């Protein structure tokens, strides 16, 4: 086996949790070339994975069939000579390109009626019995029903100090500045977002203890409004949401001394950069999608209603997040900041 194509997940966090699969494939066959076909908003993180050779960014929209675009991709990939494809999303459409490209082995979980599309099919466990996401993907490295290696490596992203310094300069952050990053968004929905007022109160506490630190808020344009709310309560916080590319955000997280993140793609990026972080969990479950880093500290109240995995709180009170007081996160963060 010489060449593999990965059909990457549609979410940044999932793409990072798939990286140990690539590391296991490489460990088993160091000469294997692994390329990835990824949505353009995920492609930058795959490009920073040491196991991936080439990333083909796609414009394919999440949830849309776009058959002619998939046919075109399949035709292009036909000439690459792939021996095997690993299809990570569960949808039928995600398995179309490797099938149409005539890739002989097509590995994935049984998903939406894709019996003919995949020819190495793993049983898809029911949601409540699903192992941690990282293990779920890593299983594709072994035969269906086979045993996983004892230890699965954590995700790791490449960084480039020259690039990081240039990015910091572009955003007006002088060298040697102590940067603390807030990642207040979570694409999934409000039941995963720690309240902006809590972030603002935390910023005020940090200001008193670390007066020279620069606090920045990172995220997409959709998170800018939440970050504006934080700035209302803590005007010294710089709202960079929507102003950075994903690559810029990775650079800024890499140079941050610590971060506070919701359960989001940037939380997994911070973990893969091995930066200290407090990861705040609400409606989701840190046993399923934890930040995979020794430098991460998880705040999760594990209420009787949690995890509900809902986008919005079905009980209307959002206690799982509101009751994580800023003081609690501050104490945890201060410990991380004082760690040698
Ligand atoms: S039901 Fe419970 S876990 Fe779900 S969002 Fe509401 S408070 Fe959080």
Which properties best describe this structure?
340 residues, 2 domains, Rossmann fold, single chain, 12 strands, binds iron/sulfur cluster, six-stranded parallel sheet
How are the secondary structure elements laid out?
Blueprint: E1 3-7, H1 12-17, H2 19-28, E2 33-39, H3 43-47, E3 52-58, H4 67-78, E4 84-87, H5 92-100, E5 105-109, E6 120-122, H6 133-138, H7 161-170, E7 179-183, H8 196-209, E8 214-217, H9 224-233, E9 238-239, H10 246-254, E10 258-262, H11 265-272, E11 277-280, E12 296-299, H12 319-322, H13 326-338
Parallel strand pairs: 1-2, 1-4, 2-3, 4-5, 5-6, 7-8, 7-10, 8-9, 10-11, 11-12
Helix pairs in contact: 4-5, 7-10, 8-9, 8-13
Bound molecules: iron/sulfur cluster (SF4).
Structure characterization notes:
This protein has helices at residues 12-17, 19-28, 43-47, 67-78, 92-100, 133-138, 161-170, 196-209, 224-233, 246-254, 265-272, 319-322, 326-338, and strands spanning 3-7, 33-39, 52-58, 84-87, 105-109, 120-122, 179-183, 214-217, 238-239, 258-262, 277-280, 296-299. By secondary structure, it is of the alpha/beta class. A 6-stranded parallel beta sheet has the order 3-2-1-4-5-6. A 6-stranded parallel beta sheet has the order 9-8-7-10-11-12, with helices on both faces. It folds into 2 domains: 3-141, Glycogen Phosphorylase B (Rossmann fold); 161-338, 3-Layer(aba) Sandwich (Rossmann fold), CATH 3.40.50.2000. Strand 4 (84-87), helix 5 and strand 5 (105-109) form a beta-alpha-beta unit. The chain is built from 13 helices and 12 strands. Bound molecules: iron/sulfur cluster. Iron/sulfur cluster binds at residues 191, 282-283, 303, 305-308, 310, 313-315, 317-320.
């Amino acid at each position: 086996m010489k060449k593999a194509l990965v059909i990457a997940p549609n979410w940044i966090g999932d793409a990072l949790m798939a990286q140990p699969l690539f590391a296991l494939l490489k460990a088993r066959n160091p000469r294997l070339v692994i390329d990835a076909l990824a949505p353009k908003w995920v492609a930058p993180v795959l490009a920073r994975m040491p196991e991936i050779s080439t990333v083909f960014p796609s414009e394919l929209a999440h949830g849309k069939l776009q058959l002619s675009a998939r046919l075109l991709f399949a035709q292009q990939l036909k000439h690459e000579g792939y021996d095997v494809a690993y299809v990570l999303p569960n949808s039928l459409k995600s398995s179309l390109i490797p099938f149409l490209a005539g890739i002989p082995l097509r590995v994935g979980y049984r998903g939406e009626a894709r019996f003919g599309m995949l020819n190495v099919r793993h049983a898809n466990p029911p949601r409540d019995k699903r192992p941690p996401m990282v293990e779920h993907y890593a299983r594709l490295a072994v035969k269906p029903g086979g045993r996983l290696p004892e230890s699965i490596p954590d995700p790791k992203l490449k960084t480039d100090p020259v690039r990081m310094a240039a990015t910091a300069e572009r955003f007006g952050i002088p060298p040697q500045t102590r940067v603390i990053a807030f990642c207040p968004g979570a694409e999934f929905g409000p039941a995963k977002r720690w309240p902006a007022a809590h972030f603002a109160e935390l910023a005020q506490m940090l200001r008193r203890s670390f007066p020279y630190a620069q606090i920045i808020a990172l995220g997409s344009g959709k998170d800018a409004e939440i970050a504006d709310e934080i700035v209302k309560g803590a005007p010294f916080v710089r709202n960079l949401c929507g102003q950075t590319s994903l690559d810029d955000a990775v650079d800024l997280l890499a140079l941050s001394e610590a971060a506070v993140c919701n359960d989001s793609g940037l939380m997994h990026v911070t973990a893969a950069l091995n930066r200290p972080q407090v990861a705040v969990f609400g409606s989701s479950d840190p046993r399923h999608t934890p930040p995979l880093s020794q430098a991460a500290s998880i705040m999760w109240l594990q209420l009787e209603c949690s995890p509900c995995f809902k986008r919005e709180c079905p009980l209307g009170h959002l206690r799982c997040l509101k009751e994580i007081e800023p003081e609690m996160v501050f104490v945890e963060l201060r410990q991380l900041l004082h760690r040698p």
